[in-house]
Fold this sequence. Notes:
Layout: E1 2-9, H1 21-24, E2 30-34, H2 42-54, E3 58-62, H3 80-100, E4 105-108, H4 112-118, H5 122-135, E5 140-144, H6 148-155, E6 159-165, H7 189-202, E7 204-206, E8 212-214, E9 219-222, H8 229-242, E10 246-247
Parallel strand pairs: 1-2, 1-9, 1-10, 2-3, 3-4, 4-5, 5-6, 6-9
Antiparallel strand pairs: 7-8
Helix pairs in contact: 2-3, 3-5, 5-6, 7-8
Amino acid sequence: MTIDINCDMGEGFGPWPMGNDAALMQHITSANIACGFHAGDAVIMHKTVRLALEHGVAIGAHPAYPDLQGFGRRNMQLSPDEVYAMVLYQIGALRAIAEAAGGKLHHVKPHGALYNAAAKDRALADAIARAVRAAGGNLLLYGLSGSALIEAGRAAGLRTCSEVFADRGYQSDGSLIPRGQAGALIENTEKAVEQALEMVRNQRVRSPGGQWVPLQANTICVHGDGPHAVEFARALYGAFEREGVKVLSFEF
């Protein structure tokens, strides 16, 4: 049994504020690097790529809506063609930086509002999948387990990686409880680790109503911007090792 641990990174501004990135790299296997549309810039992208390479962490593009002020968490009304071009642009930027540093691009994981919209909007999901396919390189597409994005990726002939969240609550339909609502965030490390182990070992999660919701867990997200992010990542990695779950970047 294996699991990939991914984390959103390179989400700073101006002179590179590393935040938790350097410490977190020791406890993850895949890094989703901001491509400048919701956070980050060329210098931060370059430094984060080099940091990932130093730790043997798989490099992924983390494309988003063009929303610096809202950190990519506000919905935007863009056409599928606009989303296709926007995602392709961001993939290309990070790929160039990764290859110049001696690495390669491994995956693409949309960010924030774009990720959530693509989980339900098949036309939007198809546009993202089309951009990933057009980018070439046999890239993996990361998306919410059971979502329209995973379906679109498979329909486009892409390798897909179903993602789950240790520190987020789930609704009975398998979607995440929206931020701001009760139960959206799990802030207790022990409870988050317990949920993560349940998802990986038994491929299911319990909703607030007590229902068991089936899901597929290929990769699990650790949010790197919380005050206890490093502590949580360390605890999660250690729990998987104790349970005999190998922590590896997702491959076929």
